[in-house]
Amino acid sequence: MENLDLDLLLQENLILNKMKKQILSILYITIVSFGFAQDFNIKSEESVVEFNYVSEGAIGTIKGVSGTIHFDINNLSDSYFETKADISSINTSNKTRDKHLNAPDYFHTDKYPHLIFKSESLKVDEGEFVLVGKMTIKEISKTEEIRFNYKDNVFEGRCVIYSNDYEIKKQKTREESKILVKITVPVL
Fold first, then answer.
1. DSSP state of 96
2. Would the pTM of this model clear 0.85, i.e. be above it?
3. Cα–Cα distances in Å, from 165 out to 54, 79, 98, 137, 185?
4. Are 151 and 115 in a shared domain?
5. Whether residue 10 is found in the same domain as residue 81
6. 95-123 tens-digit pLDDT
7. Are the C-beta atoms of 163 and 171 separated by less than 8 Å?
8. Do residues 70 and 98 both lie within one domain?
9. Which residues contact 101 (CB under 8 A, 6 or more apart)?
10. For residue 96, what are the domain limits?
Protein backbone atom coordinates (compact mmCIF):
# COMPACT_ATOMS: atom_id res chain seq x y z
CA MET A 1 0.00 0.00 0.00
CA GLU A 2 2.80 2.43 0.85
CA ASN A 3 4.51 1.69 -2.48
CA LEU A 4 1.28 2.43 -4.31
CA ASP A 5 0.90 5.78 -2.52
CA LEU A 6 4.51 6.63 -3.26
CA ASP A 7 4.06 5.73 -6.94
CA LEU A 8 0.94 7.90 -7.15
CA LEU A 9 2.75 10.81 -5.53
CA LEU A 10 5.66 10.47 -7.94
CA GLN A 11 3.30 10.39 -10.94
CA GLU A 12 1.40 13.43 -9.67
CA ASN A 13 4.68 15.25 -9.12
CA LEU A 14 5.85 14.44 -12.67
CA ILE A 15 2.53 15.65 -14.10
CA LEU A 16 2.72 18.88 -12.06
CA ASN A 17 6.31 19.50 -13.19
CA LYS A 18 5.32 19.02 -16.84
CA MET A 19 2.40 21.42 -16.40
CA LYS A 20 4.65 24.00 -14.73
CA LYS A 21 7.12 23.79 -17.63
CA GLN A 22 4.31 24.21 -20.17
CA ILE A 23 2.82 27.16 -18.32
CA LEU A 24 6.25 28.80 -17.96
CA SER A 25 6.96 28.22 -21.67
CA ILE A 26 3.65 29.82 -22.66
CA LEU A 27 4.26 32.71 -20.27
CA TYR A 28 7.79 33.24 -21.65
CA ILE A 29 6.57 33.25 -25.26
CA THR A 30 3.81 35.70 -24.35
CA ILE A 31 6.21 38.05 -22.56
CA VAL A 32 8.72 37.91 -25.43
CA SER A 33 5.97 38.54 -27.97
CA PHE A 34 4.62 41.54 -26.11
CA GLY A 35 8.05 42.74 -25.02
CA PHE A 36 9.50 43.02 -28.51
CA ALA A 37 6.59 44.27 -30.57
CA GLN A 38 6.56 47.86 -29.49
CA ASP A 39 7.14 51.47 -30.31
CA PHE A 40 10.25 52.94 -28.77
CA ASN A 41 10.93 56.50 -27.68
CA ILE A 42 14.41 57.61 -28.68
CA LYS A 43 16.58 59.19 -26.01
CA SER A 44 17.69 62.00 -28.34
CA GLU A 45 20.08 63.62 -25.86
CA GLU A 46 22.01 60.32 -25.55
CA SER A 47 21.88 59.21 -29.19
CA VAL A 48 24.90 59.75 -31.39
CA VAL A 49 26.11 59.14 -34.92
CA GLU A 50 29.88 58.70 -35.01
CA PHE A 51 31.78 58.88 -38.28
CA ASN A 52 35.24 58.35 -39.71
CA TYR A 53 35.92 59.95 -43.09
CA VAL A 54 38.74 57.55 -43.86
CA SER A 55 40.68 59.37 -46.62
CA GLU A 56 40.45 62.72 -44.84
CA GLY A 57 41.37 61.37 -41.41
CA ALA A 58 38.38 63.24 -39.98
CA ILE A 59 36.41 61.70 -37.15
CA GLY A 60 33.45 63.20 -35.37
CA THR A 61 29.90 62.99 -34.13
CA ILE A 62 26.42 64.15 -34.98
CA LYS A 63 23.88 64.33 -32.15
CA GLY A 64 20.17 64.94 -31.86
CA VAL A 65 18.81 61.68 -33.27
CA SER A 66 15.00 61.65 -33.16
CA GLY A 67 12.15 59.85 -34.86
CA THR A 68 10.03 56.72 -34.67
CA ILE A 69 11.11 53.14 -34.09
CA HIS A 70 8.63 50.27 -34.20
CA PHE A 71 10.54 47.05 -33.62
CA ASP A 72 8.74 43.71 -33.81
CA ILE A 73 11.23 40.90 -33.33
CA ASN A 74 8.52 38.31 -34.02
CA ASN A 75 7.42 39.88 -37.31
CA LEU A 76 10.32 41.86 -38.79
CA SER A 77 8.24 42.93 -41.80
CA ASP A 78 6.07 45.01 -39.42
CA SER A 79 9.10 46.87 -38.06
CA TYR A 80 10.01 50.34 -39.26
CA PHE A 81 12.56 52.99 -38.42
CA GLU A 82 12.11 56.65 -39.39
CA THR A 83 14.86 58.75 -37.89
CA LYS A 84 16.73 61.97 -38.41
CA ALA A 85 19.88 63.50 -36.98
CA ASP A 86 20.65 67.20 -36.58
CA ILE A 87 23.64 67.72 -38.91
CA SER A 88 24.33 71.19 -37.51
CA SER A 89 25.45 69.45 -34.30
CA ILE A 90 28.47 68.04 -36.14
CA ASN A 91 31.58 68.00 -33.98
CA THR A 92 35.04 67.05 -35.24
CA SER A 93 36.89 68.77 -32.37
CA ASN A 94 37.88 71.49 -34.84
CA LYS A 95 35.49 74.47 -34.76
CA THR A 96 36.79 75.86 -38.07
CA ARG A 97 36.19 72.53 -39.81
CA ASP A 98 32.76 72.17 -38.16
CA LYS A 99 31.72 75.60 -39.42
CA HIS A 100 32.94 74.70 -42.91
CA LEU A 101 31.06 71.37 -42.84
CA ASN A 102 27.82 73.30 -42.16
CA ALA A 103 28.50 75.62 -45.13
CA PRO A 104 26.80 75.35 -48.56
CA ASP A 105 29.73 73.50 -50.21
CA TYR A 106 29.35 70.62 -47.72
CA PHE A 107 26.12 69.87 -45.79
CA HIS A 108 24.46 73.29 -46.25
CA THR A 109 22.67 72.87 -42.93
CA ASP A 110 20.75 76.14 -43.24
CA LYS A 111 18.86 74.55 -46.14
CA TYR A 112 19.20 70.83 -45.25
CA PRO A 113 19.39 70.56 -41.45
CA HIS A 114 18.89 66.80 -41.12
CA LEU A 115 20.29 63.48 -42.17
CA ILE A 116 17.17 61.30 -42.62
CA PHE A 117 16.76 57.52 -42.67
CA LYS A 118 13.53 55.65 -43.51
CA SER A 119 13.57 51.86 -43.45
CA GLU A 120 12.20 49.67 -46.22
CA SER A 121 13.00 46.20 -44.87
CA LEU A 122 14.48 44.38 -41.91
CA LYS A 123 15.95 40.89 -41.76
CA VAL A 124 18.39 38.82 -39.72
CA ASP A 125 21.74 37.82 -41.22
CA GLU A 126 24.61 36.10 -39.40
CA GLY A 127 23.20 36.91 -35.96
CA GLU A 128 22.66 40.62 -36.71
CA PHE A 129 19.68 42.64 -37.82
CA VAL A 130 20.04 44.18 -41.29
CA LEU A 131 18.01 47.32 -41.88
CA VAL A 132 17.71 48.49 -45.49
CA GLY A 133 16.26 51.88 -46.30
CA LYS A 134 16.66 55.31 -47.84
CA MET A 135 19.18 57.69 -46.35
CA THR A 136 18.68 61.28 -47.39
CA ILE A 137 21.34 63.96 -47.18
CA LYS A 138 20.87 67.29 -48.99
CA GLU A 139 17.69 65.94 -50.68
CA ILE A 140 19.74 63.12 -52.24
CA SER A 141 18.33 59.70 -51.28
CA LYS A 142 20.29 56.47 -51.59
CA THR A 143 19.55 52.94 -50.44
CA GLU A 144 21.79 52.05 -47.50
CA GLU A 145 22.18 49.02 -45.27
CA ILE A 146 22.61 49.35 -41.50
CA ARG A 147 23.69 46.25 -39.58
CA PHE A 148 22.68 46.47 -35.92
CA ASN A 149 22.13 44.74 -32.61
CA TYR A 150 19.60 45.50 -29.93
CA LYS A 151 20.59 44.95 -26.31
CA ASP A 152 19.74 46.58 -22.98
CA ASN A 153 17.43 49.16 -24.65
CA VAL A 154 20.13 50.33 -27.06
CA PHE A 155 20.16 49.96 -30.83
CA GLU A 156 23.78 49.96 -32.00
CA GLY A 157 24.48 49.85 -35.72
CA ARG A 158 27.07 50.47 -38.35
CA CYS A 159 27.17 51.19 -42.04
CA VAL A 160 29.39 52.56 -44.76
CA ILE A 161 28.36 55.53 -46.89
CA TYR A 162 30.22 57.49 -49.56
CA SER A 163 30.39 61.27 -49.67
CA ASN A 164 30.46 61.17 -53.48
CA ASP A 165 26.97 59.60 -53.45
CA TYR A 166 25.61 62.61 -51.55
CA GLU A 167 27.68 65.30 -53.30
CA ILE A 168 29.62 66.16 -50.16
CA LYS A 169 33.35 66.66 -50.67
CA LYS A 170 33.70 64.97 -54.05
CA GLN A 171 36.73 62.68 -54.25
CA LYS A 172 38.42 61.31 -57.37
CA THR A 173 37.18 57.80 -56.65
CA ARG A 174 34.19 56.48 -54.75
CA GLU A 175 36.45 54.45 -52.47
CA GLU A 176 38.27 57.63 -51.40
CA SER A 177 34.91 59.04 -50.29
CA LYS A 178 34.26 56.18 -47.81
CA ILE A 179 32.77 57.17 -44.44
CA LEU A 180 32.48 54.57 -41.69
CA VAL A 181 29.42 55.23 -39.53
CA LYS A 182 28.49 53.94 -36.07
CA ILE A 183 25.02 54.71 -34.70
CA THR A 184 24.07 54.42 -31.02
CA VAL A 185 20.41 54.96 -30.16
CA PRO A 186 19.25 54.35 -26.58
CA VAL A 187 15.48 53.98 -26.24
CA LEU A 188 12.73 53.87 -23.63
1. H
2. no
3. 15, 27, 21, 9, 25
4. yes
5. no
6. 999 999 999 989 999 999 999 999 999 99
7. yes
8. yes
9. 90, 92, 107
10. 38-186
